[in-house]
Amino acid sequence: MRIKGSASSRKGRSLVSTAIWIVLLACAVGGLTYAFRPVPALVDMATIETGELQITVDEDGKTRIKERYVVSTPLGGRVMRIELRAGDVVTAGETLLASIEPRAADMLDARTRQQAEAQVRASEAALKRAGPAHKKALAETDFATSEVERIRQLAQQNAAPQKELQRAEMMLRISKESTRSARFDEEIARYELEMAQAALARTDDSNEDPDARFEIHAPINGRVLRVFQESAAPADPGTPLLSIGDPRDLEVEVDVLSADAVRVKPGDDVVFDRWGGAGTLRGVVRLVEPQAFTKTSALGIEEQRVNVIADFLDSSEDRGALGDAYRVQARIVVWREPSVVKVPTSALFRDGDEWAVFAVVASRSQLRQVRLGEQNDLEAQVLDGLQAGEIVIVHPSDKIADNVVVQPR
Predict the structure, then answer these.
(1) Which has more pLDDT, 109 or 378?
(2) Domain 42-51+338-408 belongs to what architecture?
(3) At 115, which helix (H) or strand (E)?
């Protein structure tokens, strides 16, 4: 009995020892597995979304008065002191800008009379050109107005797309600006003709008072922008005296790279910010000048640039104290789509000749080539390779490769 109990005890101790070794072996295997397990890489992630994407050309712009007129002397003589100062309000036909004491000898000189007659003929020719141009602009505006009304009615019946209506409204705005400019040209041409005729009358021998002062009145409503000749002094015909214009009637001149200018077209929306006031201002491209010019950049590189002229859509009251030659930041919208699949550009990198991203699938990175459309500094349009709702890694480091375990930072 004693021998049998001893054998049973030894068998029990053997089972315990085996169990201990099994536990130790399991712990060792678990420890090694834990020690050599893949450590997830901490990454920043972003979700692919569907939304609006727009491409802009961003450049500095400078405001300028649309219609600026430089008043010059129509005849030679002594210009009396000009009392007006920059900022003074002037009224067309009423405000006295300057007065001239003509030289009597010049008034009776045959050469002076011939020059005055030539100036009258030139002014008459300018007025003959300005009149038909104004009528043409009025006709174009009437046609553009009727087109807007016609397309608006079709759009209300869902028979015309909204883009067509927007294009027609843009053409109406441009034609109205052309009409206003043509009207201004005609008014100035008529004013210059009247001045030239008055100067010619001074050369007539029958003039009762050739020594009377010749008065120059304001040709347009506006403000004095600059006085060129303040003190009394002799002046020859054509000497600039002052410039006038309406500071509320502004446009913006934006010079862009010629490579960007080919994408800009009349009617493109413009957003103005960093102009000194609160919020942003809206505008629209009216003209892309057909000729480029060379400009040296801050780095000393010669660039071909093109002036783009844009009009404000906000009223002068919304623009605050914005005046002539003020700096603004312009963003010209050259492409816009309301609903595209887009990916952050910070997730993109080159994989050979193709664009690629690291998508996140089941907590692992997956190399994915993508086909892109338009892109700006922050986002790019995805044409193929990704779908809305998928997750990608942004700013992938050199630790990220295909099939790497990742987790959000």
Answers:
(1) 378
(2) Beta Barrel (2.40)
(3) helix 110-156
